[in-house]
Design goal:
Elements: H1 11-55, H2 59-72, H3 81-93, H4 109-118, H5 122-135, H6 139-147, H7 161-164, H8 167-174, E1 181-182, H9 194-203, H10 205-212, E2 216-227, E3 230-240, E4 245-255, H11 259-274, E5 284-291, H12 294-302, E6 308-314, H13 318-323, H14 327-343
Parallel strand pairs: 1-6, 4-5, 5-6
Antiparallel strand pairs: 2-3, 3-4
Helix pairs in contact: 1-3, 4-6, 9-10
């Protein structure tokens, strides 16, 4: 039996480099194939649009075209009548022939159909297309962000970041916030206790991270700190891997109270002192409450010296929230009911 030849020095590093090159080349090739496919679909859709305008093509012609294309290219998927209708809608929504220069051209076709199905506003389609490409959202994540109207919630939470963080850093920290956070995936009612809410967020950590946004990593729940013999527990601790900062999250199931900020500020200072490293950005706190008065929040934040944001959370999806009567509607209904009772 012959002994295996010794591995030369530097072989492992060279192999790692070649692996990285192969992966990069495969990724580039996949992107090129996808871009060409998207361009093809746009071209087919634009052709259908022109024929409909010039010659009055109807749904029957679309069905015949789909059948003929499938017969000609049996190995290619995507030539169903429904998909041809999506191609037409795609060309109508992005009418510029410079489609390859737009963010939507970088997305998989399934993502594009989601944009066409879920959104009518062109600016919103571009907003979600750009961020889906930038952050590598999966189709499910894209659908989640559209369903929960992420465009209206990002960077929206009241905070004191401009007063407590350097200018550039305060802008970055603000990008981590939303208002409200939609936690409908927890399947909890409005009477859930804080410990139940914490546990549910941990049990559904993948959904929680998706709602928090890109870059969040979960560190722990009820993270313990011993301060000269006194025990303290941080509700939820996260680390943002892009901004290199800890994010302390405290949960309150009731309405915002100014005293909540003192407790959260203490935890932020504790994490900043015990866990933060020299290369890390300032630790920030995020208080999640079931309800808040924004004016009270602003006055309360003005007196805080640690960077904190305050946001509300919803346990129901936006569509259901919109269908529910407001507090004013309920009050009016009760008032009218009591008036009717008095007239009998």
């Amino acid at each position: 039996m012959t002994e295996a030849a010794p591995i030369p020095s530097g072989y492992a590093a060279e192999l790692a480099d070649l692996r990285a090159q192969v992966r990069a080349a495969r990724f580039t090739a996949q992107r090129r194939v996808n871009t060409e496919l998207v361009h093809l679909y746009w071209g087919i859709g634009a052709s259908i649009l022109r024929r409909q305008d010039d010659e009055g093509w109807g749904s029957n012609v679309i069905g015949r075209l789909a059948a003929d294309l499938r017969a000609e290219f049996p190995d290619m998927r995507g030539f169903s009548p429904r998909n041809l209708a999506y191609m037409r809608a795609f060309a109508a929504a992005w009418g510029d022939e410079r489609i390859l220069q737009q963010p939507v051209a970088e997305l998989p076709w399934g993502h594009i159909t989601v944009l066409l199905n879920r959104l009518d506003d062109h600016q919103l389609r571009d907003w979600y297309a750009e961020r889906a490409g930038l952050h590598g959202w999966s189709r499910n994540v894209l659908e989640h962000h559209i369903r929960t109207a992420a465009h209206s919630r990002v960077q929206a939470a009241p905070s004191n970041f401009p007063a407590t963080l350097p200018a550039g850093d305060s802008d970055l920290a603000q990008q981590l916030t939303k208002d409200p956070y939609v936690l409908d995936f927890l399947a909890l009612d409005g009477d859930a206790k804080e410990r139940h809410l914490e546990q549910a967020l941990v049990d559904r950590i993948i959904d929680t991270l998706r709602e928090l946004g890109e870059g969040f990593a979960f560190v722990g729940r009820q993270v313990h700190f011993d301060v000269h013999g006194d025990d303290f527990y941080v509700d939820l601790l996260f680390f943002h891997v892009e901004q290199l900062r800890y994010v302390v999250i405290e949960l309150k199931t009731g309405k915002f109270k100014p005293e909540y900020l003192g407790q959260l500020g203490f935890y932020v200072a504790l994490v900043d002192d015990r866990l933060r490293r020299p290369q890390h950005a300032d630790t920030v706190g995020l208080l999640l409450v079931a309800d808040k008065n924004d004016a009270v929040v602003r006055y309360s934040l003005a007196g805080q010296h640690t960077p904190i944001g305050v946001a509300s959370y919803d346990l129901l999806p936006p569509a259901v929230q919109a269908a529910l009567p407001s507090e004013a509607d309920l009050a009016n209904a009760l008032h009218e009911g009591s008036s009717d009772d008095g007239d009998d």
